[in-house]
User: Fold ABC transporter ATP-binding protein from Piscinibacter gummiphilus.
Amino acid sequence: MPNAMRTPPPAGCVFRTRGLGKSYGSGETRVDALREVDLDIARGEFVVLLGPSGSGKSTLLNILGGLDVPSTGQVMFGDEDLSRADDAELTTYRREHVGFVFQFYNLIPSLTVRENVALVTDIVKNPMTVDDAIDRVGLTPRRDHFPAQLSGGEQQRVAIARAIVKRPEVLLCDEPTGALDYQTGKLVLEVIARINAELGTTTIVITHNAAIAGMADRVVYLGDGRVLRVEVNEKKLSPAELSW
Ligand SMILES: Nc1ncnc2c1ncn2[C@@H]1O[C@H](COP(=O)(O)OP(=O)(O)OP(=O)(O)O)[C@@H](O)[C@H]1O
Assistant:
């Protein structure tokens, strides 16, 4: 039992990282993308990750999502040690627990909205219905359309439906509004905030846009691979109240 000597995080803690580090390359080309990151994320929290380009945001999100593994330190998902998981265990972890939303939607062009979302329900244990997921992102009237018939914001909402249909414990979003205009971006953020509130899905959103920090429970500022500071929002704003 490789985990037996390790102290599991307290109940209510979804993620716990300790001394987390990630390096790419070696020698003169070595890049320390993450250094000594200690972070706890509670169940149901809405966390925004802010920081300049290259500060390590995607690297951290990818490690939390089991898409990448750390070079040093530990990352726990509940009492599961992701830093010691092999490829097969990480695949199972991602499939059962993680919903991903990226800047680009990665929909299958030849499938309708319903069919794109239904792809996921075949491979998970306890999905919600496809129609429920589509309803939660406000796309019921568009469910038989193809991606090319949808706006960028609508396509992103399909991507969110696809991410949440499996009822993931965590929803990890990397620049979800990066390709969208102001109003459309706000609409997508409203959908993400609603999923977090209604389903209690622990949500982590990467953004370059500091204004989005207002809708988080906590804001984690990264710089040069380190956590520079963590701020708690006493009063969370709705996306409609944000302006930039
Ligand atoms: N596969 C890789 N190989 C080599 N270096 C990498 C790799 N992935 C990331 N890096 C480097 O690690 C550092 C952190 O990258 P990361 O993508 O995590 O930053 P970020 O804050 O998400 O940046 P951005 O906001 O531009 O997406 C950068 O210096 C980047 O060049």
